[in-house]
Amino acid sequence: MSAYQVLTAVGVIAFAYLLGSLNFAVIMSRIFTGEDVRKSGSGNAGATNVLRTVGKLPAILTFLFDILKGFGACLAGKLVFGYLINNVEQGFNWLFHPDYGAYICCIAVMLGHIYPIFFGFKGGKAVATSVGTFAVCCPLAIILGLTAFIVSLIISKIVSLSSLIATVVVIGVAIVYAIVVNFAYYNIIPVIIMALMAGVIVFAKHTANIKRLIEGTEPTISAKKR
User: Fold this and answer.
1) What is the secondary structure of 94-150 as a DSSP string?
2) What is the per-residue pLDDT for 226?
3) What pTM does this model have?
4) What is the mean pLDDT of residues 209-216?
5) Phi, psi of 88 (to 5 degrees)
6) Helix-, strand-, coil-residue percentages of the chain, each rounded to 5
7) How far apart are CA 181 and CA 174, in angstroms?
C-alpha cells in the first residue's frame, strides 16, 4: 500500500468533512434575512428551525442542499475507494471496499455538519445530511426511513419524533441488509459499526428533543414563526 493510496483515502474523507461543514441553514438564513439562524428559534442550524424562523423557501433549499452534500460526500467515498481497491496490492485491498468508503464518508460529512469548521464548529443535527448519505450507503433503508418519517409526521406533526423513528428504521434496515445481502462478499462488521455510529450521532444531537418529547413540550411543525 503506497503513500499515494493512503493520502487519497484520507483526502476523500477530509473532503466529506469539509463538504459537511457547508451549513446551508446558516447560509440560507444569512442570504434571506442577513441573520444567523443559530441566534433564533431553537438555535439549531437545521431546516426545521429555518422553516420556523426564516420561511418555507429557505427551509426547502436548506433541506435539499443538506441532502445533496450527504449524497455527494458518500458517492465520492464510494467511487474513490472503488478506484483504490482495484489499484492496491493484494493483502490491503480489503481496506478499500467501496461500501467502507461510503460509510466512512457518511460519518465524516455528518460530523462536518454538526461541527462545521467554517461556522465555529456549531452546526445542526445531521438528519437531512444522513438522508443523502444513506441514499448511497443503502437506498432501500432510506426509502423505508422516509416512508416512516412521513407517516409519523402526518400522525404526530412533530419533526424530531419523526426523525428519530426514521433513524431507527434506516439504521435497522441498513444493518439487516448488510447481514442478509452482503455477508458473503466482505466483512460487514465495519459497516454495522459505522451504521450504528451514524444512528448514535443523530440520537445524541436530539437529547434535548427527547427530553421535551418525554415531558410533552416538544413543538409541532405547526408552531408559528417568530
Assistant:
1) GGG-HHHHHHHHHHHHHHHHHS-GGGTT-----HHHHHHHHHHH-HHHHHHHHHHHH
2) 42
3) 0.90
4) 95
5) -120, 150
6) 75, 0, 25
7) 10
